[in-house]
Specification:
By secondary structure, this protein is mainly beta. The chain contains 1 helix and 7 strands, in the order E-E-E-E-H-E-E-E. Strands 1-7-6-3-4-5-2 form a 7-stranded mixed beta sheet, with no helix packed on it. A hairpin with a 6-residue loop joins strand 6 and strand 7. The longest helix has 6 residues. The chain starts with a strand and ends with a strand. The mean pLDDT is 95.
Amino acid sequence: MTLTIQDLSTEYIYIGVTGDVPSTGAEVAFKTAGTDPIEADWEPAILVNNAHALWADAVASGATGDYYVAILVGSFGGNTVAPAVGSYQVWLRLTDTTERPVRIAPEALVVA
C-alpha cells in the first residue's frame, strides 16, 4: 500500500503489524529505495493497541494487523519528522526484551 501526504500536511501514518506487541517500543525510518537505515535515521513511534486513543483512526486508515505503529509526519507544531518531497521505503524497528526485528513495512510513503 502506498501512503501519500502533501508536503504541507502534518498527520499520523499507520503501519499494521502482525504478532505480539513489543514490550519496549517501535521506531520508523524513511529511506529512498535500496538504502538501509543507519542509527540516526530511526524516529520514535507510538505503539497502538485496541486500548489506545488512536486505535479507531488506525483501523480506519486501511492498514491491517494485530496492532499498529503510528508516527506523526510533517513539520507543523515543530514536529521534526518531515521528509522532503519524494518517495520513501518505510522501515520498522520493534524492540522487545530479547529481540529487535527490523522490517521493511508493507507501506511506502510518497510526500507530494
